[in-house]
Amino acid sequence: MKNPSAKDQAMREWRRGAAGLPARSEKTAGQVLEKLLPKLGLEQQVHQNQLVQDWQKVVGEAVAKHARPVALRDGILTVAVDHPMWLSELKRYQKPLILKKVRDHLGARAVKDLVFRVDG
After folding, report:
1. pLDDT tens, residue by residue, 31-45
2. pLDDT for 44-91, tens place per residue?
3. Inter-residue long-range contacts of 25-34, CB under 8 Å, 24+ positions, other chains counted
4. Is the whole-model pTM more than 0.70?
5. Which domain holds residue 81?
6. Residue 73 and residue 50 share a domain
7. pLDDT, position 48
8. Residues 6+ apart with CB under 8 A from 103
9. The total number of structural domains that make up the chain
10. DSSP assignment of 56-120
């Protein structure tokens, strides 16, 4: 069995951070992730997942019944619609409003543009 004084010394060093552990941080997990995700290239994936989850709340029930976000790449959000009529409606008349709502939800820099396509 180890010498109790050696154990006590190791515990004291570990508690002081001498064991190479980082000092305690007061940052929240959200703050750490906010800085880490872009470095890992995962920020857009997180935004896409968030948008898929909150889509109806963001665009409203009527639009959500006929359109859904399918990809977010390089700031371009691709939205699939279920009928050519909806493609025309969203592209011509509702695109600026939907883009504003998405930016308000995810942040102004998260989405640069929207692209609509018929999928169905």
Report:
1. 676 666 566 556 677
2. 777 788 898 999 999 999 999 999 999 999 899 999 999 999 999 999
3. none
4. no
5. 41-118
6. yes
7. 82
8. 110, 111
9. 2
10. HHHH-HHHHTTEEEEEEETTEEEEEESSHHHHHHIIIIIHHHHHHHHHHHH-TTT-SEEEEEE--
CB atoms within 10 A of CB 19: 10
Q: Are residues 11 and 55 in the same domain?
A: no
- Segment 5-11 shows an average pLDDT of 71
Tell which wins on pLDDT, 25 or 75. 75
Indicate the SS3 state at residue 25.
Answer: coil
Tokens (6 digits) for 4: 């109790």
CATH of the domain at 59: 3.30.300.180
Element (H, E) at 2: none
At residue 71, what are phi and psi to the nearest 5 degrees? -160, 145
